Amino acid sequence: MGTHSVAANSSLTVLENTKAVLSCLPVRLTNAIVTTWKITLGDKPPCIKAYRREKNETSEANCTDKRITWLYRPDQNAALQIDPVLITHDGFYECVVITPDGNFCHGYHLQVLVAPEVTLSHSRNRTAVCKAVAGKPAAWISWTPEGDCVPEHKHWGNGTVTVQSTCHWADSNVSTVSCSVFHEAGNWSLSTELNQGDGPLGFPVLCLLTILYVKSPLFLVFLVIVEFFCFQRINGCR
Hints:
By secondary structure, the protein is mostly beta strands. It is built from two helices and 16 strands. It has three domains: 4-113, Immunoglobulins (Immunoglobulin-like, Sandwich), CATH 2.60.40; 114-196, Immunoglobulins (Immunoglobulin-like, Sandwich), CATH 2.60.40.10; 197-238, no CATH class. The strands form four sheets. The chain has a six-stranded mixed β-sheet with strand order 1-9-8-3-4-5, with no helix packed on it. It has a four-stranded antiparallel β-sheet with strand order 10-11-14-13, with no helix packed on it. The longest helix is centred in the last third of the chain and has 18 residues, at 220-237.
């Protein structure tokens, strides 16, 4: 009877909130004595899921995540499933099959992708802000047409990253701008109009009308109310 060990590792990328199936080695399970999954997530103690053919029984140690289970009966299929996949499932999953011919191992470095939430907004000074919030890994942002842009990255404790790009266009001929967000989970493209809703001087039209009535005492009360409204609107746009 030979005694040898065969080991292989591979990388696996899975989108958050989907189902992942991790297959064990293509060995004949009828020859398996013990089949074991060792799951290492972060700095937690490894979770061990085992099946012993002689006793036809399964056992677990340090396994608290109910989303990680055997796909079928382990005597028929040693695959593991994660349903649904969460960002906390990033880690290393190793299947070990002990047979009379030796030990067979296969490990998966599992990386969970998190699609970012993409938004695009603009202000009244020909500036637009494109955000890709809480993506994993970090997204990449580009603009059409290109402007004077400042990128920012904010890293969160769960491994996600928020990317923000703030751009300004001095050329008054540029009226429509688009931001494109590229990520392993997908691509997005959003557009907006610059100076939308501005008055001739960059103020709301209602605020511009207030200036016309400033010398008339008959509109004093009206002026106070409107000026307060304009003050709130202008401050809210800064």
